[in-house]
Amino acid sequence: MKRLLRNWRLKTGSLAIAVFLFVYVQYSHNVSRTVNVRIAEAPLPDDLLLAERVPSFMEVTFYGSRDLIDLEPSEFRIVLKKSNPKTGENVYRAELTPDLPENITATYTDRMKVYLDRADSRMLPVIPALDLTLKGDLQLGYVVTDPPAIRIRGPYQNLSTMDRLGTEAIRIQSSIARQESAAKTPVAGLPDLVEVPRGQADTVNVTVRLLKSDWQNQDDLTLIEDVPVRCYNEIRGLEMKVVGDETVDIYIAREPPGLSRDQLRAYVFCPVYYDEAQAAVKPSFLIKDLPVFISDRLRRSNLDILTVSPARLDLQFEKATVRRPTEETQGFKEHVLP
């Protein structure tokens, strides 16, 4: 025992130095490295969509020996997992994949909030953005978009506030008295997380009619007055009313033989629906500045529409009134029931 205690201070100091050197050598070979690892797309059921974007990358810190830590970040992914996701806030479990090499560890945020909304799709009218630079005495005439509406898909809350789609700017610049210009342009300015479904065209053809300022003085001008305006699409449970004049006038050049008023229809695409859950017309009971387009029941190729007046309308919508059958009507229905 005395031999063991002899020079104990020296021996204790030597042991401490040895331990320090061992730890120093070990940790001098261990380093950390922080990188951005891509987050894989969160798996979602068909009836749900992201309500807010998920970050594209997550910071991951790798720990290990210097000769093993030189990992390629692109080889890894953060996978988000959640059973039974629902609308609103969801907490997903984040996992790094694939498995790390032996003697390498990693730290990262293992939980992530993901906000979801129910998937929805709607048909909305396309309003072309015209960049007019007209020379001389030219003015804008009849403008028609084909198709008049395009289907979009996205989270319900995003779509519920939309009443139209736009296009990229279409430049109209001409000094020609009578001109029809066709432009094919992609739909532009869609809100975040809203898109045109796959397999559906995201372009429209826009035809623009240009007129001279004295176009109303031409001899072959035909006027079809007081044409009622209808919704082109079905709006279940709703009634539409035009704010102001409820009809439009159609000006046509070179009247085709046999043209009559009942062969023409004036339409607007009505971008509304009735939300039963909130008992409200969405996106609003009043939709302004919707373009009017004309349909010819006989589909004549030589029908030259110069302009429609007014060219755009404000529309008001309300829930349709359910009319109870009269006693006579009810009695008749009961009589004819099998």
Give a quick set of tags describing it:
338 residues; mainly beta; 9-stranded mixed β-sheet; 5-stranded mixed β-sheet; 4 helices; 12% helix; elongated
Describe the structure.
It is elongated, with a radius of gyration of 35 Å. Strands 2, 4, 5, 7, 9, 10, 11, 13 and 14 form a nine-stranded mixed β-sheet that branches. A five-stranded mixed β-sheet has the order 22-18-15-17-23, with no helix packed on it. 12% of the residues lie in helices and 48% in strands. It has 338 residues and is mostly beta strands.
Topology (elements, then pairings):
Elements: H1 2-5, H2 8-28, E1 30-38, E2 48-50, E3 57-65, E4 77-81, E5 88-97, E6 105-107, E7 111-127, E8 130-134, E9 138-146, E10 149-155, H3 156-159, E11 165-167, E12 170-174, E13 179-188, E14 203-212, E15 221-231, E16 238-242, E17 247-253, E18 264-268, E19 273-275, E20 280-282, E21 286-291, E22 293-296, E23 304-309, E24 312-319, H4 327-336
If you compute it from the alpha carbons, what radius of gyration comes out, rounded to the nearest whole angstrom?
A: 35 Å
The shape is elongated
Report mean pLDDT, rounded to a whole number. 85
Query: Strand content of the residues, in percent?
Result: over 45%
Q: In oligomeric terms, what are we looking at? A: single chain
The counted number of beta strands is 24
Helix residue percentage: 10-25%
> Helix/strand/pairing class, anyone?
mainly beta
Distance between the termini: 114 Å
Task: Give the SSE string.
Answer: HHEEEEEEEEEEHEEEEEEEEEEEEEEH
Poorly predicted sequence stretches spanning 5 or more consecutive residues: none
- Outline the biggest β-sheet: 9 strands, mixed
How many helices? The count is: 4
